[in-house]
Structure formats: structure tokens, C-alpha cells
Amino acid sequence: MANFIEKTKMDKLEHSECASAILPVKDALEVLGGKWKLQVIIALSFGAKRFREISREVGGITDKMLSKELKDLECNQLVKRTVHDAFPPIVEYDLTAHGQSLHKLIGELKAWGDLHRKVVLGK
């Protein structure tokens, strides 16, 4: 009986630990998930850019989708939108400090992607 109680306690502890590991990853994937967000962040990691510059660097994204992704990233405080006082107005997008905190993660994803290409594609 004592073994069963200990096992039940361990199962609950393991479940709690699992849930506490899943939740932040789920949150991160919600913010960064999709085909375009990380590509936009990578483009901005090389410096502030205007809308058209981002669009060119992230090939294949529509203007509507880029606009949506930039708004989502801005809402999550990863991207800052700056309107310069000029005629016509100049709008630039740049990573915030919070957005720059993704550099290490993106580096790890790149390294894993390189390894994955070698393993799966033999390249």
C-alpha cells in the first residue's frame, strides 16, 4: 500500500513538472508560431527596416500577411514601429529588447535546422 501511495505522489509530481514545462513552450509557440513570424524576426535582427525591405527579405509573404504579423509581433512587444516625421511619413520596424532576447533561440533553431538537413536530406 505504501508503494502505491508513493507511486501516486510521484505520478502527480511528474504530471505537475510536465505541465510546468509544457505551458511556457505552448505560450512561446503561440507567439512565434506560424510560417512567417520567425522569418520576420530574423529579417529585423539585422537592423531596422521599412515594410518593403522586410517584404523583399521574407520572400513569398503577402503584404496583408506581413502587416498582420508585424501587428502581432508589436502586440507581443517583440517589434517596435516608429513613424518618422517626414513627407511622406517613413515607417520603420525594429526589434525591441524583448525581441532581441530571441537571438539565442534563433541561433539554436538554425543549428538544429542545419543538423536536420544533414540527417534527413544528406546536405
From TrEMBL:
Keywords tagged on the record: DNA-binding, Transcription, Transcription regulation
| InterPro entries in UniProt | HTH_HxlR (IPR002577), WH-like_DNA-bd_sf (IPR036388), WH_DNA-bd_sf (IPR036390)
Where in the numbering of this chain does the HTH hxlR-type domain appear? Answer: 18-121
Q: What is this protein called?
A: Transcriptional regulator, HxlR family
Quote the Pfam families the UniProt record gives.
HxlR
Entries under PROSITE patterns matching the protein: HTH_HXLR
Q: Which GO terms label this protein's molecular function in UniProt? A: DNA binding
